[in-house]
Amino acid sequence: MYADLPPFGCTPQAEGVELQPFSRKTSVFLGISLITDDQACSAQVRFLASTDVESRSAHFSLQRLGREELLFLLKEVSCAGERDRQLWKVYSKKAHQMVASCSVEELCDIVRALCRVHYHRWSLLNAVKRRMRSREIQSLSPRRFTQLLSDLRRLNFVDGPMLQDVLKHWQFEEKIQELDAFDLCLLLIAFARCSMREEERVSTISQALRQKSSDLTASTAAGSLYAMALLDYQDDTAFFLAAKALPRCLGHASQQELVNIAFALVVLDLPAAELFSFVLERLALQADTLEPVAVHALRIVAHAVKFPEALRPAMRNSLEVPEIKGRSVKALQEVLGKTQHMAIQCATTSSKLQRAIERYFKELQVQHLPEQAVGPYVPDFILPKKIAVEVDGFTHFYAFSQRLTAKSELKRRIFNALGWGVVSLPHFKWLPMNHQEKLVYLVEQIEMAGGAPITVIQKTPLEGFSTSKRR
């Protein structure tokens, strides 16, 4: 039905009058007119071209736009990379009106279009979510299903409860064998990003991935290992990925995948120092093009190598081989040397809970500073005697659990390796306490972390820190 449509960026001819091509942005807005009208649209096109496109085009044309035309337009505009927020506000509002009449496959297309341009329309996504949390989702193919989860994850719109619901309605247990290696990797990443350490299902996915090992690529192998690291989960599949799958396809791994592999290996407890050293050597060759997020991850990796107490036993022991350790240290020195100019701004923000806890330090007359750099990290507070205070909210734990995430555990290990004691204030312990109980608990934790009575810590000055949050 779209065979006779003119390409975007061009205008149709009518009544022997040749219209001038529009700019790319204007033609995208006029895409609705080009799809919904034939030759008769020329007058409308002239009107839109000569007026304020952003204020008039959507109102003038969207009233007659059908579902199929809208879906086609969303795909074309998103594939073209058009990210004008006003444009997407108009289109997503129209899409929201059509959610009830769309099939689940068409809803996947809408989410995919939003994901391509990183546009969040919460009312639209909520409407899609309500449709997806039902048996309708059973009709999705494995690729459609895993791609939907990946897109929703990229839009920061999938959490543990939603993941559980859609897996149940899609009949995950019955369909697991239908997923290929790429689908299984996307599913593992969805679990990791939702902090859903549901061991039975993660184990099922991991074993299915092991059976499809011949189909693994550098991307799926690296993504799967990284997801397992974030979930703090390792089994024979993790060993296989590190020992066989990744070494044979390492040359095809992207820069970000190499960073993810290096980070995963300092999180997990695998004897994979040789793979680790080769990954770091490849990254050293690309150090000039590393992004800030990658540099920060590699600074964490460097601290784990410099202070091996932060590593888990199997990785620490395998890294003791002089030749392997020498290659790793040399590569990291090259990376750090070429990126030392890169100051990474701290993205932490003070929560209400952090501000409330600060009042307790004042009441206890303990010197403190918020959010100061300690190694590659920025704890919530630092106290005298090298004490780091971590206010552990929900995001520090796996979903439906009181177990710290792998990233939070690594942070603790690096703090300890640097000689810092850690005071942990988990939300599920702290919030139920009354004022006096909180004071007693805080004193106990401070004394334990500092190795000294609270009276000594109260008299100890806090020196050597400024208000800078750069790391």
From TrEMBL:
Coiled-coil ranges (or none): none
Signal peptide: none
Stretches assigned to the RAP domain: 387-444
Domain of life, source organism: Eukaryota
PANTHER family assigned: FAST LEU-RICH DOMAIN-CONTAINING, LD45607P
Name listed for the protein in its UniProt record: RAP domain-containing protein
